[in-house]
Write a structure and sequence with these properties.
Elements: H1 2-21, H2 39-42, H3 46-62, H4 73-80, E1 84-86, H5 93-98, H6 107-132, H7 138-163, H8 174-178, H9 185-200, H10 217-231, H11 234-245, E2 268-272, H12 282-287, E3 297-299, H13 301-306, H14 312-317, E4 318-322, E5 327-331, E6 347-351, H15 352-365, H16 369-382, H17 393-407, H18 414-421, H19 425-429, H20 447-452
Antiparallel strand pairs: 1-3, 2-6, 4-5
Length: 463
């Protein structure tokens, strides 16, 4: 509790500054109000610099793409793909995603873009401040810089998965940023990997907090494994995943399926700290239905039908509500919709199961079929399912994709991104979405950004 109070104090001291560092809308300069902390003051010691870093994690948890709220990629891209059916009003923002009716003026897209780049801007401010600081010890400076590099690389990766070609921003120079152009999506991933490679040698393997709410070296390697998978660098994806899986002093496979999303799960690699003691997750508050019909989304029939008979994940991770005549189903990975005496669930961002699935796919792609099947069956066995009967490379890959769909449903848009990277978006969504065409794989760039910076043009095809 003392450590928490100290962090809150540091965040309070630095919040005014971070509102300047992280709220430079659309890469334009804003004048610093009188009385706020200067950047030099923040980087006089490690405590205030660390508070600036913690503030970015708070923003990631509460605002933008990766929050777990109904405005996050979890809900919106779940509806855009085939995880969710939509039941809300036609004027709802989710309706545009579900009906494949997105426009460049969509406010959700604008908020994702703006908030991600504000968080990137804040990470760049930390990197620049640390570079100029002569008073912070090297060990602390390296760790804070490493986490800022991780944030910058990770957010660019997420933006590129969603929008395609995007700017890669590495400075707080508003003049340069206001006229920056877009980089090819493949180049974005390469540059993000460079940031993570620089981060992984700076961040220690040990967690800086017992709740695993700050990424450690293995969390960075877990994201690197994901990036290598998207790059189709199978050898590196497998190696990175193995380095995390083999860190058995920190991570233990959890067999009890109802314990996977508890805050103290030893299979969790990185998770968000709740905003207040006793609070739980945005996901539970967003997804758990108390009455029907749903006000926004519920699980789709196609997802429910994808569960094999006897799959424990359907029993433990899917909830239902009925009005006596109709039943609706919702994600129930997180059970606590409201506050409890103390928090029992944190919002999990990275967990061990994804690393086994990454390694299974990477191994299968390289012809290591026995190892791939072992990794796949670890996931299936915990779900109460028999070993996969897949034998050939193609059959194993198809089984791994099916398993990813079930294991990672309603988590950070994995389903949409998997369909996109595997080239199956048109096959799966072509018959399900009105007017679907291959150009819908990339969401439109926010109209406001194109108006402010013509160098972002042209708009993504199809919009």
């Amino acid at each position: 509790m003392k450590q928490l109070l100290k962090k809150i104090l540091f965040i309070t001291r630095c919040t005014a500054l971070l509102l300047v560092l992280a709220a430079c809308d659309d890469f334009t300069e804003v004048e610093r109000p009188s009385g706020q902390l200067t950047r030099d003051a923040v980087f006089e010691d490690a405590a205030t610099a660390e508070a600036a870093l913690l503030h970015i994690y708070v923003r990631m948890r509460d605002w933008g793409m990766l929050t777990g709220t109904s405005q996050s990629v979890t809900t919106k891209l779940g509806a855009y793909a085939d995880e969710f059916a939509f039941y809300g009003p036609a004027v709802s923002s989710t309706a545009n995603f579900y009906n494949n009716a997105l426009l460049p003026a969509d406010p959700v897209l604008a908020s994702w873009w703006k908030e991600a780049y504000n968080q990137i801007y804040a990470a760049n401010a930390i990197l620049e401040g640390l570079s100029a600081s002569g008073s912070i010890a090297k060990e602390a400076k390296d760790r804070i810089a490493g986490e800022a590099l991780f944030i910058r690389g990770y957010l660019h990766f997420q933006l590129s998965l969603t929008f395609g070609n995007i700017p890669y921003v590495t400075t707080t120079d508003y003049q340069a940023n206001s006229a920056i152009g877009r980089s090819d999506a493949a180049q974005v991933i390469s540059r993000a990997l460079e940031d993570l490679q620089a981060a992984v040698i700076r961040v220690p393997a040990e967690y800086t907090d017992p709740g695993r709410t700050r990424p450690n070296r293995f969390a960075i390697q877990a994201i690197m494994a994901r990036m290598y998978l998207y790059q189709k660098d199978w050898a590196e994806a497998s190696d990175m995943a193995s380095q995390v899986i083999n860190a058995t002093a920190l991570y233990t496979w959890v067999e009890a399926i109802d314990q996977v999303f508890k805050k103290d799960s030893p299979a969790t690699i990185w998770q968000y700290y709740p905003p207040l003691p006793g609070r739980n997750t945005n996901e539970a508050a967003s997804f758990i239905l108390l009455t029907g019909p749903p006000a926004d989304v519920a699980l789709s029939a196609s997802l429910l039908n994808a569960f094999e008979p006897g799959d424990l994940r359907k029993e433990y991770w899917v909830g239902s509500v009925s009005d006596g005549g109709q039943t609706w189903y919702y994600p129930y990975k997180y059970k606590e919709r409201t506050s409890t005496s103390s928090s029992v669930e944190y919002s999990v961002q990275l967990r061990l199961a994804e690393l086994y699935l990454i390694r299974a796919e990477a191994r299968a792609r390289q012809g290591e079929l026995v190892g791939a099947k072992e990794d796949l069956d670890r996931i299936r066995n915990r779900a109460g399912l028999p070993p996969s009967d897949a034998v050939s490379k193609d059959a194993l890959l198809e089984a791994i994709y099916r398993e990813r769909r079930i294991e990672l449903f309603a988590e950070a848009g994995h389903r949409f991104y998997d369909l996109k990277r595997s080239g199956r978006l048109d096959e799966v969504l072509g018959a399900a979405k009105p007017g679907w065409n291959p150009e819908d794989a990339n969401l439109p760039l926010p109209e406001t950004e194109l108006l402010l910076n013509p160098n972002l043009a042209p708009q993504n095809p199809g919009y």
